[in-house]
Design goal:
A hairpin with a 3-residue loop joins strand 2 and strand 3. The chain is built from four helices and three strands, in the order ααβαββα. The protein has a three-stranded antiparallel beta sheet. The protein has a domain at 39-103. With 104 residues, it is mainly α. The radius of gyration is 36 Å and the shape is elongated. The termini are far apart.
């Protein structure tokens, strides 16, 4: 009998041992995710008013660029906005407030 044909004294490992070895290499995943972001709080009335005041100021002082939409620029002009150049639209405070109240 040659060495190739000789019965092997080493028997194959059962599958269970292989799975246990694979599990020991990789950590067990966590069953849940912990939320690291605190819950948010709703804004009170004073904070909402502050946002509105600042938004009105930005629209009045800086304005907005409307490019490629002549109809939108015409509608803003008809509503009382100041148009500078071809695309800069500045909305006076009273105009923005009036539009909010009538649309909303």
């Amino acid at each position: 009998m040659s060495a190739e044909n000789a019965p092997s004294s080493v028997r194959p490992r059962p599958r269970k041992e292989g799975r246990q070895r694979a599990r020991s290499v990789y950590p067990t995943p966590v069953a849940y995710i912990k939320r690291a972001i605190p819950p948010y709080e709703m804004l009170n009335e004073e904070q909402l008013v502050q946002i509105e005041v600042h938004a009105d100021r930005i629209l009045q002082e800086i304005g907005m660029e409307i490019r490629g939409d002549a109809t939108a620029i015409r509608l803003w002009k008809n509503a009382g906005a100041d148009i500078e150049g071809e695309s800069r639209v500045r909305v006076p405070r009273c105009t923005a407030e009036h539009l909010r109240l009538t649309q909303g």
